[in-house]
Amino acid sequence: MGLLCGAPYAAELPPGFVRLADVAPQIGQEMRYAGVDNFVGRPVDGYEAGDCWLLEAAAQALAEVAVDAAKMRWRLVVYDCYRPERAVADFVAWSRDAKRQERKTEYYPDIDKADLFNLGFIATRSQDSKGTTVDIGAEAISASGKATKLDFGTPFDMFAPRSATASTDIKPAAQKARTTLVELMAGHGFDNYRKEWWHFTYAVEPAPPSFDLPITND
Questions:
Q1: Residue 37 in domain
Q2: Which residues are catalytically annotated?
Q3: The pTM is what?
Q4: Rounded Cα–Cα distance for residues 72 and 68 (Å)
Q5: Which of the residue ranges 22-31, 98-107, 177-186 would you say has the lowest mean pLDDT?
Q6: For 156-189, how does the pLDDT look when each residue is reduced to its tens digit (9 = 90+)?
Q7: How far apart are CA 139 and CA 124, in angstroms?
Q8: 3-state SS assignment for residue 17
Q9: pLDDT grade, residue 60 (50/70/90)?
Q10: CATH number, position 135
Q11: How many independent structural domains does the chain possess?
Q12: Nearest Cα residue to 126 out of 41, 210, 184, 65
């Protein structure tokens, strides 16, 4: 399981940022890079706490998505939000260490880790550092309040062709879940990255700068 998050507080956020828990506490948080349930198999540099930070406009828009999702008994769950630049550098260093292959079977079984950048699964310069991008999934909520993870065809961060949003190499129900998620997010200004069904960016003009402040609750 990912790292389940409450609302830890940090001494400093990047300018214009908010904690998602303060804006939309109904959205679940499983901040994968703050724990070991991720493709590198350890906490990533810059994730000292598992807390979703976003630019305020993106957080407010995501809160509106959550309202629409609740009408269809969905609960949004974020896996990553703002990503410090040092985390991106950590991914680059990891990709160049051929000895570190602990999570290959789960996350990139058919791909050489050195090719993850060329194939567009990881970027050397990431929009995630601007606070406008989220990695997100959802749960179905029953009438009794029980939450069940929705099947989107592949897990979060599975680096494979089947993770492409429009892939037909998955069950029809999973295709429908992806289409529904894209429609929900698009309705409030989030654009999907076609190679990853979970990856969405909120359009902000002018484009905000990137930041490297670590995510901390000190």
A1: yes
A2: 196
A3: 0.91
A4: 7
A5: 98-107
A6: 999 999 999 999 999 999 999 999 999 999 999 9
A7: 31
A8: strand
A9: very high
A10: 3.30.1380.10
A11: 1
A12: 210
Residue range of the domain that includes 183: 17-202
Residue 206, class by beta-carbon neighbours within 10 Å (0-12 exposed, 13-18 middle, 19+ buried)? exposed
Name the residue type at position 198. W
Residues written for the chain: 218
Distance, in Å, from the CA atom of 75 to the CA atom of 195, rounded to the nearest integer, reads 23
- C-alpha distances in Å from residue 15, one per residue of 27, 123, 128: 23, 23, 15
Taking all residues of the chain, what is their mean pLDDT, rounded to a whole number?
Answer: 91
Residue 218: the pLDDT is: 65
Reduced to 3 states, what is the DSSP secondary structure of residue 93? helix
Q: What is the CB-side half-sphere exposure of residue 38 using CA atoms within 13 A? A: 21
Place of tokens 């999702």: 69
Residue 10 lies in a domain: no
Please indicate, yes or no, if residue 2 is contained in any of the structural domains: no
Answer yes or no: are the C-beta atoms of 180 and 138 closer than 8 Å. Answer: no
Q: What letter represents residue 103's amino acid?
A: R
- Please give the Cα distance from 99 to 19 (Å, whole number): 36
Residue 117 lies inside a defined structural domain of this protein: yes
- Cβ atoms within 10 Å, residue 94: 18
